[in-house]
Amino acid sequence: MNRLAGKVALITGGGTGIGQAIAERFAKEGAAVVVTGRRKDKLDPVVHAIERNHGRALAVAGTVTEEAHVRSAVEQTLRAFGTLNVLVNNAAIGSFGKVMHEIDDATWDEVMAINLTGMFRMTRAAVPELIRAGGGAIVNISSVGGLIGFPMSAAYGATKGAMNAFTRCIAMDYAAQGIRCNAICPGLVETPMAEGLLQDETRIAGVLDAYPIRRVGTPDEVALQAVYLASDESTWVTGGIFPIDGGLTAH
Ligand SMILES: NC(=O)c1ccc[n+]([C@@H]2O[C@H](COP(=O)([O-])OP(=O)(O)OC[C@H]3O[C@@H](n4cnc5c(N)ncnc54)[C@H](O)[C@@H]3O)[C@@H](O)[C@H]2O)c1
Questions:
Q1: Distance CA 220, CA 66 (A)
Q2: Is the pLDDT reported for residue 172 higher than 90?
Q3: What pLDDT is stored for residue 219 in this prediction?
Q4: Which ligand 1 atom is at minimum distance from the Cα of 216?
Q5: 167 pLDDT exceeds 90?
Q6: Where are the beta strands (DSSP E) in 13-165?
Q7: Is the pLDDT of residue 170 over 90?
Q8: Which residues are tagged catalytic?
Q9: Tens of pLDDT along 87-96?
Q10: Which residue among 22, 109, 161, 179 has the highest number of C-beta atoms inside a 10 angstrom radius?
Q11: Spacing, Cα 43 to ligand 1 middle (Å)
């Protein structure tokens, strides 16, 4: 407890799944949290749950594809809590089920705009504030799809591979200003994004064969790694790409 006391964190896609678990964990550890996402009806319950547990939280609805929303999220964070210490780039969409030559331009562009350009815009808006705060932490929620190949996942995998490269470059650019940047690469986690696969009993059995720890992960197991990377327990850790995947990529 209190590993993030005094810190202010902005978490994109914080209304559901892994982002929600990170918001709740961060709040339990003493951080004030701002959750962003497209749907206010998903964000408000997260804020209320945190407030009921005597935490501090704010919801800012909008899409990471709009520069105005991204700037407003950072501005509202400063107005509400005075500073920004941690950015978690978690918002993303999945895009699975087609081999590469069947992916149309609109799908490709949307996945790039949210998963990759959205992360870039949010990071660009946050970094000056992290510098003003005397340093901070950026935690990127990537995927094992950025580390190894999966069939029918080319657009999604391309964004996550790029996210890992981006993470390393940001670690280089801002280490001198005290900003650390790391990425977490979850394997299959029980969230709305994975719902379709999790409900398909035949496919899921085959998928789990590849996991030495033969189960899917929980959002909270990812959130615990995010706490570590956001906290002062990891002050010598930057540019790291961390699989949290039940051993999937240990093969
Ligand atoms: N669930 C898994 O198996 C798994 C595995 C590896 C990585 N991930 C990654 O974890 C992260 C969280 O995903 P999740 O599994 O919790 O699924 P999820 O669908 O519950 O979460 C994604 C969140 O991003 C938000 N979002 C989507 N588009 C947005 C936009 N344009 N602007 C703002 N917010 C937007 C959604 O509203 C949602 O809250 C993603 O980056 C995902 O790629 C998930």
A1: 29
A2: yes
A3: 98
A4: 3
A5: yes
A6: 32-37, 57-61, 86-89, 136-141
A7: yes
A8: 156
A9: 999 999 999 9
A10: 22
A11: 13
Closest residue by CA, ligand 1 atom 39: 13
Residue 123: partners with Cβ closer than 8 Å, 6 or more residues away: 87, 89, 138, 166, 170
Q: Is there an atom of ligand 1 within 6 Å of 18 CB?
A: yes
Q: At what angle do helices 118-132 and 154-174 cross, to 10 degrees?
A: 20
Category of 236 on φ-ψ map: left (φ > 0), alpha (ψ -120 to 50) or beta:
alpha
The reply to whether ligand 1 has any atom less than 6 angstroms from the CB of 189 is yes
Could you tell me if residue 122 is left (phi over 0), alpha (psi between -120 and 50 degrees) or otherwise beta?
Answer: alpha
Full set of structural domains in the chain with CATH? 8-189+219-242 (3.40.50.720)
Give this prediction's pTM.
0.98
Q: Atom 7 of ligand 1 has which residue's CA nearest to it?
A: 143
Does residue 63's CB lie within 6 angstroms of at least one atom of ligand 1? yes
User: What is the C-alpha separation between 10 and 43, in angstroms, rounded?
Assistant: 13
Ligand 1 center to residue 61 CA distance, Å? 15
For residue 194, pLDDT beyond 90 = yes
CB count in 10 Å sphere of residue 57: 27
At a CB cut-off of 8 Å and minimum separation 6, what does 125 contact? 70, 71, 73, 74
The one-letter code for the residue type at 45 is P
> Tens of pLDDT along 74-89?
999 999 999 999 999 9
Q: Is the CB of 146 under 6 A from ligand 1?
A: no
Check pocket membership of 192 for ligand 1, CB cut-off 6 A.
yes
Q: How far is the CA of 176 from the centre of ligand 1 (A)?
A: 31
